[in-house]
Write a structure and sequence with these properties.
about 270 residues, two-stranded antiparallel sheet, about 35% helix, about 20% strand, cytoplasm, EC 2.5.1.55
Length: about 270
């Protein structure tokens, strides 16, 4: 797959990595539009191909009282409005085969969550929508195993597939990024994305609230670009401390521009080699 196949994506001839970025969950229309407006301005300036990310519902939560969403249809309509307002593609994750077609009506890319990347019915349902399918590598899988998830999509008649590394389980409460996985998965003839912010999660905390190490976002991102990641995924918010989901490992929106400026410079050097 070539990222030019993503409907409406811009700056694909710039030689830069592409970016999937936005809030963890859609909390409101104003919030989504505010984040998208700033991200579009920054990525247009740096000629970075950009896709807005937002979850219409958070199905995988540690506690039953955790925020899950504002309503599926309401959140999906907000994603569509973001796309139409800024003329950009959007991506969202979905959680069952029955939801694939519903989500596909509103977004350009369907993301298969890491915990669900081996679920055949989910992969097949995503493939049959005809949308671009982004599969997150399970925290429990070796990079080599992702070829089987990719083949499930391809064998269902859809070659528009990419994969995302989001770290690998290291003990019970930490993740580690094995950068060898990026060139390994690139050999599968798919765009390979590094999920910076989820790689810095600290799951399974005794409080039932996932922790994180956002101070290492720049470190993880720089290394990902240096070893050849085609794209980056990150979650960003103008008030991470009060975000309703994954605030502990999100990038503050005020820091997005400076980070991307550094990463585009590294990418230019890497492309020069």
């Amino acid at each position: 797959m070539n990222i030019k196949e993503i409907p409406g994506i811009k700056h694909t001839d710039s030689g830069q990595f592409f970016l999937l970025a936005g809030p963890c969950a859609i909390e409101s229309e104003d919030m989504a539009l505010k984040i998208a407006e700033k991200a579009v301005k920054i990525t247009d300036n740096l000629k970075i191909p950009y896709v807005f990310k937002g979850s219409y519902r958070k199905a995988n939560r540690s506690r039953i009282d955790s925020f899950t969403g504002i309503g599926d249809e309401k959140a999906l309509k907000i994603l569509r409005k973001v796309s139409e307002t800024f003329d950009i593609p959007t991506i969202t994750d979905f959680h069952s085969a029955a939801e694939a077609q519903m989500a596909a009506e509103y977004v350009d890319i369907l993301q298969v969550p890491a915990f669900l990347c081996r679920q055949t019915d989910i992969l097949v349902a995503a493939a049959k929508t005809g949308k671009v399918v982004s599969i997150k590598k399970g925290q429990f899988l070796a990079p080599e195993a992702m070829i089987f998830a990719i083949d499930k999509v391809r064998d269902s008649g859809n070659n528009k597939v990419m994969v995302t590394d989001r770290g690998t389980t290291f003990g019970y409460q930490d993740l580690i990024v094995d950068y060898r996985g990026i060139p390994t998965m690139k050999k599968m003839d798919v765009p390979v994305v590094l999920d910076i912010t989820h790689s810095l999660q600290q799951p399974n905390q005794s409080t039932g609230v996932t922790g994180g190490k956002p101070e290492l976002i720049e470190t993880i991102a720089k290394a990902g670009i240096a070893v050849g990641a085609d794209g980056l995924f990150l979650e960003t918010h103008f008030d991470p401390a009060n975000a309703k989901s994954d605030g502990a490992n999100m990038l503050h929106l005020d820091h997005l521009s400076a980070l991307l400026e550094k990463l585009t410079a590294i990418r230019s050097v890497v492309k020069g080699f």
